[in-house]
Amino acid sequence: MKAKADEIMEQLSQFIGTEGFYRLPLFKTRYTDGIKYLSEVAECFWLITDASIMAKSLRTCSEFVTIDFKRLSETERMNLEYEAEVIYSDGNNNVLGKQEYLFTDFPLDELRLFFVNDTLMLPSEY
């Protein structure tokens, strides 16, 4: 799993800007080449959908939303009784929202995404 995570992160670093945009039709969210790659190799369309829904609901609080996925340490999992969380903020460490996941098979321990102008993207694509 660690090797796959390292390979995914290495590939994600190659995405600078984007050549194409894709759409989540139900939510009218656009996403970039890097997000498309991530959703396919990490099989995490659930994360793309959840992030889109939550970030759209926070637009009145901030036009720019950071989305930080974090897998908790073993100690944190025991204390909090969930495996991972996604923190939504305005990019200035002002937390706007949080989602907790009891279980996840997401291969990465951490990941940051941006949501701006109804578009979900990797930081390197901003």
Beta-strand share of residues:
25-35%
Continuous helix count: 4
Distance, first to last CA:
28 Å
Helix content: 25-40%
Largest sheet: 7 strands, mixed
Instruction: Give the radius of gyration.
Output: 14 Å
Strand order of the largest sheet: 1-2-7-6-3-4-5
- By DSSP, the count of extended strands is 7
Q: Point out poorly predicted stretches.
A: none
Structural class: alpha+beta
Tell me what you see in this structure.
There is one protein chain. With 126 residues, the protein is of the alpha+beta class. It is 32% helix and 31% strand. It has four helices and seven strands; from the N terminus they run H-E-E-H-H-E-H-E-E-E-E. A seven-stranded mixed β-sheet has the order 1-2-7-6-3-4-5. The longest helix is centred in the middle third of the chain and has 13 residues, at 45-57. It is globular and about 40 Å long. The protein starts with a helix and ends in a 5-residue tail after the last strand.
